[in-house]
Amino acid sequence: MMKYSSRYSILMIVLATVAALSVGGCGGRKDSSRGNQEAEVQFYSCGMHPNVIQEGPGNCPICGMNLTPMGIPTGGTEETFGSTVKIDPTVEQNMGIRTAEVEKRDLTQTIRTIGRIDYNESKVAHVHTKFNGWIEKTHADITGQRVNKGQPLLDIYSPELVSAQEEYFDALKNVRSSGNDVSVGAANRSQTILGSTRRRLEYFDVSGDQIDDLERTGNVRKTLTVRSPFEGIVIEKHALDGMEVKPGMMIYTIADLSEIWVYADIYEFESPWVKEGLTANMTLSYDPGKRYRGKVQYIYPYLEEETRTIKVRLSFPNPNLKLKPGMYANVEIETSPLRNVVAVPMEAVLFSGERNLVFIVLGDGRFAPRDITVGIESGDGFYEVKEGLSEGVKVVASGQFLLDSESKLQESIAKLLSKRKE
Question: How many CB atoms lie within 10 A of CB 137?
């Protein structure tokens, strides 16, 4: 039996990671005989003092308890050290090693997140004035009022509009009265002036119906009726009877709520799964039994730095106006499955920063680490394997952290033994 030597103290840090591999602590068990024992060297250690290591059985020089085998027999074969790890069956059982088979399967992911309901920006209209004037009467005088397309919003008096109407009517009379008594050139000039005055009215947002009415009746109207551009809800109102308005002043904001947008945030690792056009489901906290179906409309091309998330815009039909801007909702995005790919359980992969490792099962207590390249992560606990593994290979799914420590320990011992032989 060799005495405890300080030359083994260099293994203290490495051995501390495998303290759990000791069988029965210091209680001890007698070493089972093996074939070709003279060719193998069995290392023993103390479960209470993992820095104690020696060849062959004995007692701990610190506490005096029986040493236990470390499960690292060295028999001169190259596979004992290096990339292959050989574990004593008893130690393997105590390590709780569990294996799984690499298989081809469909990978799926359901993205669950929180969404905020907002207006559809393409269906929001701001009603402005393009001239000076005074509001004679408001027809849509309540915020939240529902209006139809073309419905009167207000009547406004503007001297500019009155003047533009008179100019148009005069031009129209000139065209009508000229008949065939003028030259072709004069008739063309009259038509040009008429078209110019009509366009001026159109630029003031005078509707075609109102211009036609002016042509038919010949009556210049004192006020212009401003109408709603589409069906929607008055969400902002700044118009009051008798109020003076200036060009560019916003007097109404009208939103069409028949379709709403929902903004949701997804994490970086979920982004490969999300594509435009995917189906999305939404539920509201006040009505959890009702599910609304929409689609992914747009994925924003930047990352939110504070939350490290990507913003996604969803669109949902809202015919009954139950979805109200400002509400929060639970959102699920149905992703397209990744069909028939090589997959490995997530718990089988060790990430060391520079390498992605799995331990493959060689049989007879032997395990070997292997570098792999992983792809996307599924929602049911699997990684896509792009390189390094094929279907049917068995890998370690539990206990691989201890195997990794054991592998590093064996490499250290191999280097130590090679120095002793020198």
Answer: 15
- CA atoms within 13 A of residue 230's CA, in its CB half-sphere: 12
pLDDT, one tens digit per residue, over 134-157 is: 999 999 989 999 999 989 999 999
Amino acid at the residue 239: A
Amino acid letter for position 156: I
Four-residue CA torsion sign, 153, 157, 160, 162:
positive
3-state secondary structure of 190: helix
Q: From its phi and psi, is residue 352 left (phi > 0), alpha (psi between -120 and 50) or beta?
A: alpha
> 5: closest CA among 416, 422, 418?
416
Pair type for strands 43-45 and 53-55: antiparallel
Which of 422, 355, 352, 365 has its CA nearest to residue 387? 355
* Predicted TM-score of the model (pTM): 0.64
In order of 30, 350, 355, 369, 412, the CA distances from 358 in angstroms are 33, 6, 10, 6, 21
CB 45 within 8 A of CB 8: no
Measured CA to CA, the distance from residue 217 to residue 134 in angstroms comes to: 24
The whole-angstrom separation of Cα 53 and Cα 133 is: 98
Which string of DSSP letters, residue by residue, matches 390-404? Answer: -TT-EEEEESHHHHH
Q: Are 21 and 94 in contact (CB under 8 A)?
A: yes
Task: Evaluate if residue 59 carries a pLDDT over 80.
Answer: yes
Q: Residue 307, class by beta-carbon neighbours within 10 Å (0-12 exposed, 13-18 middle, 19+ buried)? A: exposed
Locate all alpha helices (DSSP H) within 87-158, ordered by sequence: 89-94
Cβ proximity of 252 and 238 under 8 Å: yes
Look at residue 29 in the predicted model and tell me its pLDDT: 39
Rounded CA separation 258/231 (Å) = 9
Q: How many angstroms separate the CA atoms of 273 and 312, rounded? A: 12
Distance (Å, rounded) from C-alpha 132 to C-alpha 160?
A: 7
Per-residue pLDDT tens over the stretch 287-337? 888 999 999 999 999 999 888 999 999 999 999 899 999 999 999 998 988
Decide if 282 contacts 331 (C-beta within 8 A). yes
CB 264 within 8 A of CB 281: no
Nearest to 237 by CA among 150, 129, 145: 145
